[in-house]
Here is the input.
Amino acid sequence: MQNQPNILLVEDDSIIASGLVYALKGEGYAVTHAASVSDALSFASAGSYDLAVLDLGLPDGSGFDVRERLGDTSVIFLTVVDDEGNIVKALEGGAEDYITKPFRLRELLARIKVVLRRKTGGGEALSIGKVSIHTSEGKAYIEGMPLDLTALEYRLLLTFANNKGKILTRTQILDSIWDSAGSFVEDNTLTVYIKRLREKLGSSADIETVRGVGYRVNA
Ligand code: CA
Here is the structure.
């Protein structure tokens, strides 16, 4: 992969660390792992990182000691349960985010994606409600979690995103998804597609039915 984001993982628990290294590499990131403040500092002075995931409790100090030496690298701290003092300190110290142990791997991966995307400016992302659409990737996300959409559902979502606040007639929508999907969508099938898309979006975005006319998506 080109321009792999480069992540520095500082975690002294070898089980957590090996799981994270495996998962991060699986997501296409380059990962450097350090198990102590001193190792982390030598990696930090030797290279540059897009993101650092820093455990707060390390054998020879804390994640804050590493943070200080990372310049403008984005940071996500790993904290222990309800350590409010440290969480406040972490956020005041410029951390992009924190996650409390024990955490779900998927949740950390989602937060990493959000932070990296924020950092890179997000490209030409479109949004509706809490859904962001990355046209360069052809994917949509809800708060960093990828949405599993069919090609046609994606086109439908994109059509709404490009026409926010406007009423779209069923014919306009059919024309739009017909063009790009290359397959014929019947008028009564559109209702089914809209229903499925609504189910996938949940409360993250609202597709309003305008009776007798079509549909509208606001915001
Ligand atoms: Ca630790």
